[in-house]
Amino acid sequence: MKEITLINNSFAYGGFTSGNEGIWTRNEPFDPPTCDYISLSGRLGIPLTNIVRPYQAGGDKTEIVCAEHGGSGVIKDNELKKVDGLITAEKGLVLSIIAADCVPVYLADESAGVIGLLHCGWRSAAGFIVHNAVAKMQWLGASPEKIHVIIGPHICSGCYEVGEEVRRSFADNFTENELEALFAYREKSLYLDLSRTIRLKAMKEHIPVENISASQECTFHDTDFYSYRRGDRGRQDLAFIMMK
Ligand SMILES: [Zn+2]
Predict the structure, then answer these.
(1) Which residues have CB under 8 Å from 207's CB, separation 6+?
(2) Distance 154 CA to ligand 1 centre (A)
(3) Which residues place a Cβ less than 5 A from the ion ligand 1?
(4) 3-155+216-243: CATH homologous superfamily?
(5) What is the per-residue pLDDT across 10-20, written as a single tens digit (0 to 9) for each?
(6) Distance 217 CA to ligand 1 centre (A)
(7) Closest by alpha carbon to 197, among 127, 133, 117, 126?
(8) What is the 220 CA–ligand 1 centroid distance (Å)?
(9) What digits encode the pLDDT tens for the residues 80-122?
């Protein structure tokens, strides 16, 4: 198991873990929690009833969650369907998402007492998930200039080869200069920088550049993490964040 801490201060704690088996999803909505969630609950000292996991769909939808959502997707059926971002103002509620190469994005506004966690594949990163999350955080009292963004471990720009259709799709949302910065050709192959994509999206939401940081860990070339591109199926890494 590899587990790293991305935020740990008086306000919030957040990390990224492969778990022991990388199994976070259950086959049926009412199956018991997975061993990895039980283990995480023990490490955090937080009951399973305080952990939330949405049913992700690689889209733009985000939801504000509170205590009543606790345990969703972990110990009980999940009403958070096709949701790729969670926002909360509730202390002790653990937001979690699963990812195996996609980008986990951690959001925190300490002065407003609001956090968020996003699952961003290339479609979400190029789309509106960051915008939607910031809007929901503002609804809870957060201000873009006070939001801190941590871009978690994901497939790095040196490993993430994509097809031309990805660049064409990005052209709807980015200028030609931006596309030049986000994509690179190496030996006739095209590579995408997801980290820079998220950074650019956050800056467009008026989050100060000095508030944005990124992990250098890569899920693809670090074999301690699970990676879809490397062939892992059904096993994923887990990102989590909670307010203390
Ligand atoms: Zn890499």
Answers:
(1) 134, 144, 145, 147, 149
(2) 8
(3) 156, 159, 218, 220-221
(4) CNF1/YfiH-like putative cysteine hydrolases (3.60.140.10)
(5) 999 999 999 99
(6) 8
(7) 126
(8) 5
(9) 999 999 999 999 999 999 999 999 999 999 999 999 999 999 9
